[in-house]
Amino acid sequence: MFKSRLLLFGCILAVVVSACGAPATTAPIATSAPTSAPALSGEVSFMTPGDPLEAQAFQKLADAFEKQYPGVKVKMITVAASEEAYHARLSADLTGDTPADVVLLDYDAVSAFFSRDALHPLTDNVAQSTMIKAADFYPAAYNAFQWKGQQMCLPLNAGTLVVYYNKKLFDQAKQPYPAEGWTWEQFLADATALTESPERFGVAIEPELNNVLPFVWQNGGEVLSADATKLELDSPAAVEALQFVADWQKKLHVAPNSEFDVSEGNTERFEHGELAMLIDKRDKTLEFRNISAFDWDVAPLPQHKQAANILKSDGLCVPAKAAHPELAWKLVEYASSAAGQTILATTGQIVPANISVAQSPAFLDPNAKPAHSQVWLDELTHVHSVPPIARWPEIEEVANEEFEHAYFDTGDAARAAEEMVDHTKNYFKP
């Protein structure tokens, strides 16, 4: 039942980082002058996680890159089984000195790679580029991939959590659609009114730490102690927020229980019209655009004492042992440019990290669902990031397991928070 996308990643990573060898040089990857770029030739490998729909989106990007540089062939490597499988594959490739030339990594899982110099720094490459510059990107996403003053990866997207909602179910229940500024109380009232268990539930969320942190921040809580030496999730404000989410399932029964969770995933439940609201990130748009039985849209997270959300961002990185670092940089550069970002934006795959594309019709087209994609950009005004801690993936794994236990089994968020703090304290030691 435990579905953390980082399951076992900490254990695998411990092996990887000890085998990364000598630190990578901090020199920039060699680049060709813009006038000679079309003469580039060779093959560059690009590894991404994802299902077939995501793979199609990245293939469109690869095809466009090949047209831009006719002498270059992109070898796509898609690990579709799960994010756990993707991390395991990447870790094994780094250990065996055979990583892809470009890899896609979520920012909350890369600090361990940064700390062991497993990736090429890209700071100087960005500075020398005539295609992109640092100011092109949303600062929250761009800065999330920095380590000790170096830009280690470039952000592909600048997403947040949103509430996907079934407009047909809201209409049938005569409930107004969620709107900016709605409160925790209004959210629970909607979830209650729209629940007709077991046929339909009002809301669903994957009970993972990163998905509940926005509610902690909204309630005035913090992730870490002031001296950053331990988790602060056992504070009264944090516990109250964790309990707020845990109550959806265990106390109020407006969310699927463990039995329903196993029998059908939240994505499928929403697609089948059995779920009124789903809290998730942008990539669900790819699948939901195939829904024909009802109309749907997105809304911001409900607010409490203050507005808050969490950054959901993947970055393009070049492993230190990439076989073709120059071609790898050109692919990263193109994917980060307005041209590359436009391709992925129109597929529905990303919230563009490139500001000009995010604010263009490529992303904000009201004729392409969801109608209110502006919600993601509005949420960036109060976005938070997880801390850049080398062992964060392991911390997250422990926290995920404890919160999932509270969400589905005990209903006791205070106890879960105590366990999170206690079981992760050694991860903060030098």
Question: Could you walk me through the main structural features you see in this protein, from its secondary elements to its overall organization?
Answer:
The protein is an alpha/beta fold and 430 residues long. It folds into 2 domains: 9-158 and 313-370, D-Maltodextrin-Binding Protein, domain 2 (3-Layer(aba) Sandwich), CATH 3.40.190.10; 162-310 and 391-428, 3-Layer(aba) Sandwich (D-Maltodextrin-Binding Protein, domain 2). Helix content is 42%, strand content 13%. α2 (52-68) links the parallel β1 and β2. α2 (52-68) runs antiparallel to α15, α9 (209-218) packs across α10 (236-250) and α10 (236-250) packs across α19.
Features:
42% helix, five-stranded mixed beta sheet, 20 helices, alpha/beta, 2 domains, four-stranded mixed beta sheet, single chain, disordered N terminus, D-Maltodextrin-Binding Protein, domain 2
CATH homologous superfamily placement of the largest domain = Periplasmic binding protein-like II
Please estimate the helix content.
Answer: 40-55%
Q: What does the average pLDDT come to? A: 91
Separation, N- and C-terminal Cα atoms: 33 Å
- Beta strands, count: 13
Largest sheet: 5 strands, mixed
Provide the spatial order of strands within the biggest beta sheet.
2-1-3-12-6
CA radius of gyration is 21 Å
Strand content: 5-15%
Count up the helices: 20
Please give the domain count.
Answer: 2
Which segments are poorly predicted (pLDDT under 50) over 5 or more consecutive residues? Answer: 1-26, 32-37
- The CATH architecture category of the largest domain equals 3-Layer(aba) Sandwich
CATH-derived topology of the largest domain: D-Maltodextrin-Binding Protein, domain 2
Secondary-structure-derived class = alpha/beta
User: What would the principal axes of the Cα set say about the shape?
Assistant: globular
